[in-house]
Amino acid sequence: MFLEEIQFNHQPGFSGDAMAMTLNRDTPVETPEWQRGRPAQPVAYVGEAVNGGVLTIRVRFSDGPAGQRVRVRALDADPQTDLDASQGCAALVTNLIVGAARALAGNALGSVAPNEVTFNEFGISFLQTFTLSGHFIRRGVPFTKRETRWRWQYEEGGRWVDIGESRHTVYVLPFAPVAPWNTLTTPRVDALDLAWEWAGGSRTRDEIAQRITRNVNRLPRVSYDPMTMFGGNGSEPFQLTSWLTAMRSGRPFQMNCTDCANAVTSLSNLLGCTLSCGRMNGTINTHTFLPIGGAAAVDSDWIAFNERVFLAWDYHEICWLDDFTSDRVWDATLRLDGDPSEDGRLAIDPVNMPWASRYWPLLVEVPRTRINERLVARRAVI
């Protein structure tokens, strides 16, 4: 008997099903995600949507007994073995540690409960629905990327006989993606991989946005330029593919405030945050700040855009919680000087920072700054 295919996203639109995704800008993750003789494609689930409920897959087999029914199952090929609690506190502590590790790594999908499979006269089965048993996908789960290995077996003469093994890369998101994802853009695996590098293990939206903001700000080989490098002005889409290519090229590149706001909003909202890019047009006279790519200990890296020195900004774009009605902001373009004295500088990250009482007074000379227009957007990603 051969395992032929496994479908994870087999109920499109059902919140407890695997998410529809693309590998990148151009290549969709197709169903079935696993086919014999082909590379397996990744799958993703949303912990908040599944919340420990029933998960199912659809599976097809070949070279089975013609016209007969056979019970089939799949075991976790990397099972967790608990120590006997009667062995004392050491065993209990070990079980707790192993359980905690299991929540962050290893098989998220559990095992595949036994079910009967019907074969036609040619020994080929119909697609059969199987239920997953003991999965770890529920509300409160951290953002993780895991590997599931299933050992498939069929029952014959009262014993279980191995068929083969399947391997699956599984992303578990704590929250469902928010616009622009699922509305303007299908969630992308290349973006999920970067989000995993930066925010893996995060459980809350605040932690996700904070870690992504800081990682954008600390990107190596990046310097600040007032002009946008990756689109996203007005209603233009954010050129995520070009930005990812620049990041991984190993060569220096530049970003401005629009690029940073788009990057933070796109990656954070992919994991369920509700950030928006908020653009302020006007005359913005700044205090001294440390731009992206700057070193806090190098005095010459601290700059200002101010009519007293040269030119003011004519706009600045940052991330807002929801929209301009909130008072919480994130800005990966810069770090603020948190030391009001002239004697030193204290570089602080604007992450989940109160706008009115903290961010804006530290960034600008308020009496000499005029905002004429505010625009908010969650731009499409290409």
Number of strands: 19
**Strand order, biggest sheet?**
2-1-4-7-6-5-8-9-3
Strand/helix succession? EEEHEEHEEEEHHEHEHEEEEEEEHE
Global mean pLDDT: 91
Helix percent band: 10-25%
Distance between the termini: 43 Å
Largest sheet: 9 strands, mixed
Shape call = elongated
Instruction: Return the domain count.
Output: 2
Instruction: Give the structural class.
Output: alpha+beta
Low-confidence stretches: 93-98
Nearest-angstrom radius of gyration?
26 Å
Count of alpha/pi helices? 7
Strand content: 25-35%
Record the SSE blueprint.
Blueprint: E1 2-7, E2 34-35, E3 43-46, H1 47-50, E4 56-62, E5 69-76, H2 89-104, E6 111-118, E7 128-133, E8 144-156, E9 159-173, H3 189-199, H4 205-217, E10 222-224, H5 240-248, E11 253-255, H6 257-270, E12 275-284, E13 289-291, E14 313-321, E15 328-330, E16 334-337, E17 347-348, E18 353-354, H7 355-363, E19 370-377
Parallel strand pairs: 3-9, 10-11
Antiparallel strand pairs: 1-2, 1-4, 4-7, 5-6, 5-8, 6-7, 8-9, 12-14, 12-19, 13-16, 14-15, 15-18, 16-17
Helix pairs in contact: 4-6
